[in-house]
Design brief:
By secondary structure, the chain is of the alpha/beta class. It has helices at 15-26, 32-35, 41-46, 82-93, 113-126, 143-151, 168-171, 177-190, 208-220, 247-260, 277-285, and strands at 30-31, 51-54, 58-59, 69-70, 97-102, 131-135, 156-158, 195-202, 225-230, 264-267. An eight-stranded mixed beta sheet has the order 1-2-5-6-7-8-9-10, sandwiched between helices. A two-stranded parallel ribbon has the order 3-4.
Length: 287
Amino acid sequence: MNKLPSWFRQDIPDGEVMNFRRLLSGFNVHTVCREAKCPNITGCFKNKQATFMILGDACTRNCKFCGVSKSEGAGLIVDKDEPLRISRVVEALGLKYAVITSVSRDDLPDGGAGMFAKTIELIHGINKDIKIEVLIPDFCGKITSLRRLLGARPEVVAHNIETVRRLYSGLRPLADYRLSLSVLSKIKELNPAVITKSSIMLGLGEREPEVLEVMKDLRKHGCDILTLGQYLAPSSGHYPVREFISIEQFGKYRDIGLGCGFKSVLSGPLVRSSYKAEEVFRELIYA
């Protein structure tokens, strides 16, 4: 599984992309685009789109598929100026829609929810009409953390299920399938109006009936938007790709997902959690 299908070919970064990278570096902000080695980085940066990553660049979880640096939590700090720098980047770029995610920080009592809220509040302080999507860790299921996050009024809250239940113990030993579903349910209970979202990676060895089971579970727990994309190993030391999913199969999953009742389903090889995030949000709002 070393040879990539032709649809993964990407453009070489041009001057516009390099300028965007320099801008981000100048503000000293992290993006999951770079840390997780997203295949869409050139196209997104060219369009001045990025998913900002708060709470540093080291994660306390040990998921086998993720390219983000790992840490057990010892010695990690919280950069309290990070939300301000991100808000200034959003302002400098003139963004109308900002996407914010984070590493998992199990060493923090609130899991980092307060930093999410502070970032949202500072961006809204620049312009209250800027729409914000957050992609959150599970906060260990703490209801107080979810309340703090939702109190800052993001428009979309995403939490990724990532893979099928059977593969969790091998791929996500510090995560829990049922807990992730519970997080999505609690978000809806606390604020039924907020849009919820989740994502599944394919090509990890899952079977079609298992993918359908995840879709049904997500819908039962109030998930509104689903994205499905092809897993790509960040390096030879990560979990290997077991299969490249065909374009036809991605189309089939999209149709099945819509049949399950999701408001929107994005399904394709290059689809990622925040893929076309602003476009999907605006389609739902103005439908």
